[in-house]
Amino acid sequence: MNPTDLPPIVIAGGGTAGWMAAATLGRFAGRKVLLVESEAIGTVGVGEATIPQIRLFNAALGLDEAEFLRETQGTFKLAIEFAGWGGEGERYLHAFGTVGHGAGVLPFQHYWLRARQAGKAGPLSDYALNDVASRAGKMQMWQAEPGKPVPDMPWAYHFDAGLYAAYLRRYAEAHGVERVEGTIASVERDGESGDIAALVLDGERRIEGGVFVDCTGFRSLLLGGALGVEFMDWTQWLPCDRAVAVPCETKGEFTPYTRSTARKAGWQWRIPLQHRIGNGHVFCSDFMGEDEATKTLLANLDGAPTADPRVLKFTTGMRAQQWSHNCMALGLAGGFMEPLESTSIHLIQASIARLLQMLPGAEVAPAMRAEFNRQAEFEWTRIRDFLILHYWANGREGEPFWDRCRAMDVPDTLSTKVETFRASGFVHREHEELFTEPGWLQVLIGQGVVPENYNPIADAMPEVELTAMLARIAETNQRLVAAMPDHAPFLRAHIDPR
Ligand code: FAD
Predict the structure, then answer these.
(1) Does Flavoprotein count among this protein's keywords (predicted)?
(2) 229 and 333 share one domain
């Protein structure tokens, strides 16, 4: 069947999720795409830090990186710094890319653990290129050979999500997506199949479609509301339920990493953009009120606030199915995990990739829907485990919120991972998991989970070779980083090459 003969795809909501979906479906689906959004309702207005996969998304759309950074006031991101999670004054980075590039047959940590036990290893951070570059405030790419990035040094972005949505809107409309301004008043379902038949807007306009994509944010009007898909609440493991956000002035000397600083009952984010710094304090309302959370945030800014602080309420968890009947949810409509590892925009992107791979034609195939839901649940729950680890393995003794986090029962999928790591430095990872072995390693070690042993095969390497290998990796990182430009001038030259 010619795709143009199929009923339209209707996207409900025009936040980051809605316009990311519109841009890709407009570009690739070959059929009519409508997007309904309400200016009166607006968007959630946060969401500024990403992980390197975002570059694949932009590349699939053919976006030019310099233009994208100009349009979204974006900066480069090589890592996330976690300050105070292992205890006051402690800090570590979760840097993108590998740790110990060029090690032996085993994953690097086994050699590092052996050398560490003998008192001959430096801190893990010395062996991760992005970590060394982040701490030096450097950005990589074109210093070695023009146009050729240093291999194994992935980067992501910080950007203004509102500007990104506006940029994607222009792209989507240029690719034929029709935007309908209006407020969805009700959702009409087919009496026989129960599928969604149409969105009914204020003023009784009806928007009919074949496939509906719910991007209505926390409201989840279609999947949660009309179709009644249950919400799986993860508050028991991810207990924060509020955030207060405020932008502040920047002096233009931005770090190439996001900062996450542990506070009394939660943590504070700092995201440097070209035109401002995004800040927010995520906290648990059982342990802290909104006034105290706001005060703490305002007392810890690097510049004067440029807007009033705004409180957002949320519940961590996900909808039990991300695709029900003929409706898929993207973004906050499908659930929310707090922004600790910058995964929300990535989850939108991952669902869009699945949607493109499994897009139904005239009929929905139940097997496809089931597979979509299996993949989504797997992805969400493994990310959830990674986030829980940050709370569970905290070192902030004597603070009631953090004491409670350390005492919680965690999912088996996480406790097994931590036990095997503790026993022998082994990181068990199933191949579809988002976070890599170096990612788990940095957070585990950074939060004080140090293995009692390592794989004995590491002992097969002669000691002199082991010492030389560690020295070579650390020295190579130092040498590469010493030749790199500072982040801010690099960015300026990149976005405005004149
Ligand atoms: P929204 O932006 O809320 O958009 C919903 C859309 O639906 C709007 O267009 C609205 O007008 C429309 N709508 C709703 N109801 C109706 C109706 N009745 N009729 C018509 N239209 C309607 N993600 C990251 O990746 N990195 C981060 O650093 C990050 N930080 C975050 C910090 C906080 C505190 C929170 C809460 C989230 C954060 N996120 C982050 C998540 C990120 O904000 C979202 O994933 C992203 O913005 C997508 O939002 P959305 O499009 O799903 O929802």
Answers:
(1) yes
(2) yes
Tokens 């479609």 sit at which residue?
A: 209
| pLDDT digit string, tens, across residues 360-385 | 988 889 999 999 999 999 999 999 99
Quote the CA–CA distance of 230 and 211 in Å, as a whole number.
20
User: Are the C-beta atoms of 355 and 213 separated by less than 8 Å?
Assistant: yes
Angstrom distances, CA of residue 170 to CA of 4, 160, 166, 352, 402: 22, 16, 6, 19, 45
77 is an active site residue: yes
Q: Does the interface ipTM go beyond 0.90? A: yes
**Same structural domain for residues 336 and 222?**
yes
Token pair listed for 406: 């350390």
Whether residues 232 and 250 share a domain: the answer is: no
Model confidence over 239-260: pLDDT tens digits?
A: 999 999 999 999 988 899 999 9
* Residues in Cβ contact with 68 at an 8 Å cutoff, skipping those fewer than 6 apart: 58, 74, 157, 159, 167
247 and 357, same structural domain? no
The residue whose CA has the least distance to atom 33 of ligand 1 is 46
Q: What is the DSSP letter of 85?
A: S
In 3D, which of 407, 402, 47 has the Cα closest to residue 243?
A: 47
Specify the residue with its C-alpha closest to ligand 1, atom 12.
13
Q: Scanning the structure block, which residue is given the tokens 């990535």?
A: 346
pTM (predicted TM-score): 0.96
Cα–ligand 1 centroid distance for 84 (angstroms): 29
Residues whose CB is less than 8 angstroms from the CB of residue 475 and which lie 6 or more positions away in sequence, other chains included: none
User: What is the number of the ligand 1 atom nearest to the C-alpha of 184?
Assistant: 19
Q: Please give the number of the atom of ligand 1 that sits closest to the Cα of 48.
A: 28
Instruction: Report the C-alpha gap between 327 and 184 in whole angstroms.
Output: 15
Range of the domain at 172: 3-48+160-236+316-364
Residues 164 and 284 grouped into a single domain:
no
Q: Is 421 helix (H, G, I), strand (E, B) or coil?
A: helix
